Amino acid sequence: MSTETERRDEVLSQSPVGFIDLRSDTVTRPTKAMRSAMAAAEVGDDVYGEDPTVNLLEASAAQIFGREAALFVPTGTMGNQIAIRLHTQPGQEIICESRAHIVDWEMAMAAAFSGCQFRAVAAERGIVTWKHIEPAIKRPTFNNAPTGLISLENSHNMAGGTVTPLAVFGEIWNGAHEMGIPLHLDGARIFNASVALNVPVAVLTSGFNTVMFCLSKGLCAPVGSMLVGSRKVIERGRMVRKALGGGMRQAGVLAAAGLIALEEMPKRLADDHANARYLAERLSGLPQIELDLLTVQTNIVIFGLKERGKAEELVLRLKQRGVLCGTVGRNSVRFVTHHDVDRAACEEAARIAVEEIGKL
C-alpha cells in the first residue's frame, strides 16, 4: 500500500501546476478539444462585426438563453458593468445583496463609471427575496437617490455557492416589472445554479432584462464572458464595451473555446458539485470550524474558523502541503471544485485539510 507521501505525490504529479488548486474555478485550463478548436478557428475583426466564430458564439448564447442577442466580453466584471451602465443614470441606486460580487470585487466601478451607489440588503445564505427588496426601493424625490436597477447573483459566490430557486425569482420579477425597475443577473455561475436546481438557464433567467455569465470558470474556457438581452440593449452594450476597452479584434481564437465551453461543459458540472459536497462533509464534523452544509449546493465550500484570525495561517499550512485555497475575510476559508481537480485530488485535499485544521 502506498504511503501518505506517495499518495500525495501521485495526485500532485497529475496537476498541471503541481498543486491541488482549490482557489477558484477560474484556474481551469482549456481542454484539448478547446485548444484544437482555437488553433483551427476562423477569424475576422470583431470590432467590425466580421469574426465568424465570435458571431456564432453570440448567436449560440442568445439561443440557449432565449434572447435576441448576446455580446462576447473579456470578463464577467466588464459584462456586469456594461449592464449597469445600460440600465441606470448617474445619481441612482442599485439594489443588491450585501456580499454581491459587484459590491466587493469590481473596484467600485458602478460609482466610477456609471455614477451609481449601492443599496445593499443582507439575506440569509445570500438568497434575496421580494421582501428584502421592496422596502429598499426608493422613488424619485428631492432628497433620495432613486432606485435604478436591481442586480442579483445566482449562484451566489460569497454566500458559498448557494442558488436562488425559480419561485423566489418569479416574485421579484413580477414586483420589479410592475414598478418599472430593470433587473440584471450576475450569472457568472448560472450553469451551476441550473444544474443544482434542474432548471434550464433560459427558464431560470427569463425575467431579467440582462444576464451576464462566465465561460472561464467551471466551463473551462481560457477567457471570456457573455452578456445576453434584447437586440436593442446589446447594440448599445457593444458601444459601452468599446468605451471600456473591450473591443477585441481576431477574437475567434477565444470564441472557439467558448463555444465548446457553452455547449459541452455544463454537462459535467454535477461532478464538481459532488466533489464540493464530499469536501464539506469530510470537514463539517471538525470542532475547530463552522460549516453550514445547507450552503453547499454547488461547487463552493466556505467554512469559518472558531479561533479568530487563523484563516491565513491555515491557507499557508495547506499550501506548504500542496493544497491551494483562499480566504474570505480574516476568519473563513474557501474551496472551489472544478474540472481540473478530480475526486482523487479532493480526497487527498480533504485528508490534508483535516490534519492541518486539527493542529490549529
UniProtKB/TrEMBL annotation:
InterPro entries: ArAA_b-elim_lyase/Thr_aldolase (IPR001597), Low_specificity_L-TA-like (IPR023603), PyrdxlP-dep_Trfase (IPR015424), PyrdxlP-dep_Trfase_major (IPR015421), PyrdxlP-dep_Trfase_small (IPR015422)
Ranges in coiled-coil conformation: none
GO molecular function: L-allo-threonine aldolase activity; transaminase activity
Protein origin, superkingdom: Bacteria
Keywords, sorted A to Z: Aminotransferase, Lyase, Pyridoxal phosphate, Transferase
Entries under Pfam families matching the protein: Beta_elim_lyase
Domain Aromatic amino acid beta-eliminating lyase/threonine aldolase: 21-302
Any one biological process term the GO annotation gives: glycine biosynthetic process
Keyword RNA-binding: no
Cofactor section: pyridoxal 5'-phosphate
GO cellular component, one term: cytosol
Sequence positions bearing N6-(pyridoxal phosphate)lysine: 217
SUPFAM superfamilies in UniProt: PLP-dependent transferases
Listed PANTHER family: L-THREONINE ALDOLASE, L-THREONINE ALDOLASE-RELATED
Entry similarity comment: Belongs to the threonine aldolase family.
Name this polypeptide is given: Aminotransferase class I/II-fold pyridoxal phosphate-dependent enzyme
